[in-house]
Specification:
Length: 191
């Protein structure tokens, strides 16, 4: 599993053998079954996860008891409730494994140690967080500018594997609509 992470890191950054061994040392392999809460709301997120395989979502429960999916991720990439993980604050979000998932995880203390030991890891971490910020800004823009059908078509184009692997109710919530609305949009597209 570490080889996939190292390949991902090395796609944009040069790592020495010693730095690669530090990554192997600090990232712990874990697996989660489908529909498992990986990080629970009401607690400080313990880990940053690298997704080797599987699909995860971040969701919270609104005042009416409805689950609202705010993020869906697929491999490869990093995943957690970032703001709370970085700041060490209690999260209102749950992180759930939508499918059986293979992950590598690192604690905040170990991430800080790894970054302090390796300039390449520090540079890589900065680029990951910059990508996360850009993604979130783009997602906010799409939610405010695009209509429901346009949001679904954009997701189909950019992340077709999510459409194929994630239940409709999570996709609908992620896109800011009811599952029934998404079903109508999907029927319209098929016809």
């Amino acid at each position: 599993m570490h080889d996939k992470l190292l390949q991902y890191i090395r796609s944009g950054h040069e790592f020495t053998q010693e730095e690669a061994e530090a990554v192997r040392q600090y990232f712990e392999p874990v697996t989660f079954s489908k529909n498992t809460i990986v990080e629970e709301a009401g607690k400080v997120p313990c880990y940053l996860y690298y997704i080797v395989s599987g699909y995860l979502r971040i969701f919270y429960t609104d005042r009416n008891g409805n689950e609202v999916t705010t993020h869906i991720n697929c491999p490869p990439g990093f995943f957690t409730s970032y703001q709370d993980f970085i700041n060490g604050t209690v999260s209102e979000n749950n992180v759930e494994s939508i499918t059986d998932s293979e992950l590598l995880r690192i604690s905040k203390d170990n991430l800080d140690a790894l970054i302090s030991e390796s300039q390449a890891m520090k540079d890589f971490s900065i680029s990951v967080f910059q990508q996360s910020i850009a993604y979130n800004e783009n997602r906010s823009r799409e939610l405010s500018v695009l209509n429901a059908e346009q949001r679904y078509l954009t997701l189909m184009k950019d992340y077709p594997e999510i459409i194929q692997n994630v239940p409709v109710q999570y996709i609908a919530s992620f896109l800011g609509m009811k599952a029934e609305s998404l079903s109508r949009i999907r029927k319209k597209i098929i016809n």
